[in-house]
Amino acid sequence: MTAVVEPEVAESSKQGFHVSLRNFEGPFDLLLSLINQHRLDVTEVALHQVTDDFIRYTKELGSELPLDQTTEFLVVAATLLDLKAARLLPSGDVEDAEDLALLEARDLLFARLLQYRAYKQVAELFGELEAAAQRRYPRSVSLEDRFACLLPEVMLGVGPRQFAEIAATAFTPRPVPTVGLEHLHSPVSIAEQALVVLAILQERGPDTWSTFTELVSACELPLEIVARFMALLELFREDKVEFEQPEALAPLSVRWTGEHGSIRVSDEDYA
């Protein structure tokens, strides 16, 4: 199969490296395009002849040959060589894992070829945009009088007094942020509440029963009520007080047992 070169492509073949084979003659980029479009089988391309032609082309140009053109040819030639090796595998059912891996590599090589073409087209587009931008020049003249009158008058709407108020607000030192502690309760000592309750009961004597409501009547905070109840439990454990409650949820009565001595109630047990 012999590929036909379009007229505009034939004109561009005069510039850059072109290939002359038995079944193809034209620019090297057109060869890649035909292989990419499956219009030319890579197995029918004599890559050794393409390489010889490129070496001859580089000798003719010598130092005038751009380095990027040489690099592009080496990358594409290596890709075509791997692609041709993969295409030589037999088609059909694949039972060998190595053959399957080679077929996957062939698809990967096609993807690499498409990627190369895409990068090259984008680079050409950037080149066109850069060339067009070099022909543009910014306006370097002042605003014309006929356009200056079109500008709207600036209406601030703020007088000297308002500016002074704004400045005073802006330069006034900000208050130092503080954390409020009003919502926190001061700690209540169970040991101290135990001494208070024991003193009340001792003053009334061992024969007088006092209700729990009477013992907490002087408390101002709920936390103090809880602390006095915990203190009663500690005093009961040390046999300093006795409880009496005829039935469930009935008023709780407390009296001193008459036991003297120091108490061993500590706040560390509730820390």
TrEMBL record:
This is Segregation and condensation protein A. The keyword Transport does not apply. The keyword tRNA-binding does not apply. Keywords: Chromosome partition. It comes from Antrihabitans stalactiti. Gene3D superfamilies: 6.10.250.2410. GO terms for biological process: chromosome segregation.
